């Protein structure tokens, strides 16, 4: 008989990957909470909020399930400060965005020897042109329905799954 495990008795091993999530003007409390939770689940090193400072509303905290207390994060008001940081620290930069030259995330191959920054964009406007311009890779998730986008947190989860798989190879 199959028994559902509790959080305290799973056999998952804790790992951390040299991955930073860059949140480009993310505004939704539910998305912010979900980003924290995903960062914890996928062993992300840090989350950086660019533009809007995250507001710890009840909705955000409920969605985050206390992961906002354990996942390191910082806030940068200016995009240029973020760009400077990413270049100085020599990140491999991935923008999660549909563009005229983006490639499918299925084909994304990155070195597991470098630090990776994943830029996710505003819920309505996507990744800013400034941040897109510094990306080493622009990738999208292939979709098969009529819509051309999905929820930010869902897309981030798919991207983190693919990127962490690259690190485990």
* Biggest β-sheet strands, sense, barrel: 7 strands, parallel
Please work out how many helical segments DSSP would assign.
5
What level of helicity do the residues show?
Answer: 25-40%
| Helix/strand order, N-terminal first | EHEHEHEEEHEH
Total number of domains:
1
Note the overall shape: globular
Question: What does this protein structure show overall?
Answer:
By secondary structure, the protein is α/β, with parallel strands linked by helices. The chain has one domain: SPOUT methyltransferase, trefoil knot domain (Alpha/beta knot, 3-Layer(aba) Sandwich). It is about 30% helix and about 20% strand. The chain contains five helices and seven strands. The chain has helices spanning about 30-40, 60-65, 80-90, 130-135, 150-169; strands at about 15-25, 45-50, 75, 90-95, 105, 115-120, 135-140. The protein has a seven-stranded parallel β-sheet with strand order 3-2-1-6-4-7-5. Strand 1 (about 15-25), helix 1 and strand 2 form a beta-alpha-beta unit.
Element layout with pairings:
Layout: E1 17-24, H1 29-41, E2 44-50, H2 58-64, E3 73-76, H3 79-88, E4 92-96, E5 103-104, E6 116-120, H4 129-133, E7 137-140, H5 152-168
Parallel strand pairs: 1-2, 1-6, 2-3, 4-6, 4-7, 5-7
Helix pairs in contact: 1-2, 1-5
């Amino acid at each position: 008989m199959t028994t559902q495990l509790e959080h305290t008795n799973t056999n998952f091993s804790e790992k951390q990957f040299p991955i930073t999530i860059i949140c480009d003007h993310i505004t939704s409390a539910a998305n912010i909470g979900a980003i924290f939770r995903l960062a914890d689940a996928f062993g992300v090193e840090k989350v950086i909020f660019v533009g809007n400072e995250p507001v710890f509303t009840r909705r955000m905290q409920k969605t985050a399930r206390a992961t906002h207390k354990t996942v390191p994060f910082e806030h940068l008001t200016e995009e240029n400060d973020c760009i400077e940081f990413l270049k100085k620290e020599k990140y491999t930069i991935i923008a999660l965005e549909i563009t005229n030259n983006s490639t499918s995330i299925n084909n994304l191959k990155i070195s597991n020897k470098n630090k990776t920054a994943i830029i996710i964009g505003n819920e309505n406007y996507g990744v800013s042109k400034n941040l897109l311009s510094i990306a080493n890779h622009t990738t999208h998730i292939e979709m098969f329905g009529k819509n051309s986008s999905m929820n930010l947190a869902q897309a981030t989860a798919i991207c983190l799954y693919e990127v962490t798989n690259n690190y485990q190879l």
